[in-house]
Amino acid sequence: MENITSIIAQGVLSIAGALASYFIAVGVTYLKKKREALINQLGVDQYNKDYKLAQDIFYVVEQQFKFIPAAGEQKRKEFDKLLVEKIPEITQEELNHFRETICGKVNAEVKNSGILAPAFTEGKDIADVATAQSITAPTEAQPAQK
């Protein structure tokens, strides 16, 4: 009975994993098509101009809130407010697109830079620690030989 339950559970998990992969692929495709539609709607030059402006505003807002923890909602509202001031005809969908695109780009750059990597990696740094311990460890006094 346990074997049958185990096989059924593995089958269900395999199907769930395949469905999750499919939905992720569909989501990525949807976002790419949405971006392309927005670019076509605005025109490439206007899109690039608006994107650059949104990116500049994003960095200004990040500087304003850099010492305030958990200010995500405040930053979002400030970003939207400043971008609407600069581009009055912008839609909420376009605001969301620019904010999500810029955040994704910044997060990818931070992740790829390794700046948030741990200072000590056990498998990589253990030799340095062992060497430092042996150098700084007090040695036992050796008896004097005659």
Supply the number of structural domains: 2
The gross shape turns out to be: extended
| Percentage of residues in helical conformation | over 70%
How far apart are the first and last residues' alpha carbons, in Å? 79 Å
Task: Kindly report the average pLDDT value.
Answer: 79
Query: What is the number of helical segments per DSSP (H or I, 4+ residues)?
Result: 5
What kind of sheet is the major sheet? none
What is the CA-atom radius of gyration, in angstroms?
A: 27 Å
Instruction: Provide the low-confidence segments as ranges.
Output: none
Q: Report the strand count.
A: 0
Would you give an account of this structure?
With 146 residues, the protein is an all-alpha fold. The protein folds into two domains: 42 residues; 71 residues, no CATH class. The chain is 78% helix and 0% strand. Helix 2 crosses helix 3. The longest helix has 41 residues.
Question: What labels describe this entry?
Answer:
mainly alpha; 146 residues; extended
Short précis:
This protein has 146 residues and is an all-alpha fold. The protein is 78% helix and 0% strand. The mean pLDDT is 79.
Write the layout of secondary structure elements.
Layout: H1 2-42, H2 44-64, H3 72-86, H4 92-113, H5 122-136
Helix pairs in contact: 1-2, 2-3, 2-4
